[in-house]
Amino acid sequence: MKNLLPLIILPLLSFGQLFTIDNDYMELYNISSINNFSENTYVNTLEEVSMSYEIIADSMPAAWDFQHCFPECHPVNTYFIDPIAFDSDSSVFLKGHFYPNNIPGEGFVVMELEANHGLYVDTVTWRGAAMEAIKLKEHLYKSSQIKFITNLAGQKINNISSENIVIVTYKNNQSHTYYILKN
What we know:
By secondary structure, the protein is mostly beta strands. The chain contains two helices and twelve strands; from the N terminus they run H-E-E-E-E-E-E-E-E-E-H-E-E-E. The longest helix has 10 residues, at 4-13. The model is unreliable at 5-14 (pLDDT under 50).
């Protein structure tokens, strides 16, 4: 029995991942009038590997565009690329861009990275929010239609200065989420 244990464990050790991703979930916030906002990470190869990507899920306003750079930038709205060979112990640049085209809203893109023709798979998600440029404090404190304001945890608040995200519930029971960009 002791002689069988190495024979069982040894093959399992050879099926390790060929790459890692520094950050597989990124959130981006900006004003919708900003032409392009982006966030990057790195794919780290552990062995010589051939990699490709495919966008497997996306949702965003119809006027928005997206772009990815892996390792160089591809045309806007590219949904897949052919395999590219990378050396062992490489740190490969991976960047996601959103182009809101002056349209406020929220969107996401999920990229599936495949190594060695789909034997090794991982995903990266970019979630973006483009807000209208408003003077939020003036809007919130002058609006007579506001019922209450809460933070992301659902606690009612009176002062928004320490918050990054607030949810405003209006007297008609509709609510709107505001992302607060700080300089």
